Amino acid sequence: MKRILIVSMFALIGCNNDASSPLKDIKPIEIAKVITLSDDFSEQDSAWSPKVGKWSFVNGVLKQSATSHTFDVILYQKQKFSDVDVSVDFKPISGRIDASGGIIFRAEDRDNYFIVRANALENNFRLYAFKDGYRHQIATARVKTPSIAKIHTIRVVAKGGHIQAYLNGKLYIDHIDNSFSNGYVGLWTKADSITEFDNLKISASE
User: In 10 A of CB 87, how many CB atoms?
Assistant: First the structure.
């Protein structure tokens, strides 16, 4: 009985979530929304800085179409954020190795950041920390596999070390990690993913 209690308490403070359904009893994080930004990608913005990949503003979306890199990264380098609430629509167009889309947050540079991503070839939703270019999985959840060529929404909310991640409006990840406290927001794909992004929204406290 004692062991079960310990596991349950540890889950609440941020161990990897491997639930097959959304988290229903976790209180959503709320942050003070001092800054509100949005981008529908209808016009090119020089604040977007491609680091890896082929990123283009086309037909009202931001598209990543390179298929030969391990990870494709673009950062919104207008300003850095600490406590932040970010959401984006993504459409996985194609990919045989991977068909993913993700939100980068608290990025120090192209090799150090948090990333939450969904993959249209897998039934999982994951949070990673990249440190010096190496990827470390820190939380995962089972989800219904996102459909290819359909629009899906990812959202991440981070307040201090507390991180929550949503897929299509449902909370799946609730985790604590203090690897990064401040940095840029960005977008991400992997391997041969061709992915479109739209309707980026950022709310932040600073």
Answer: 18
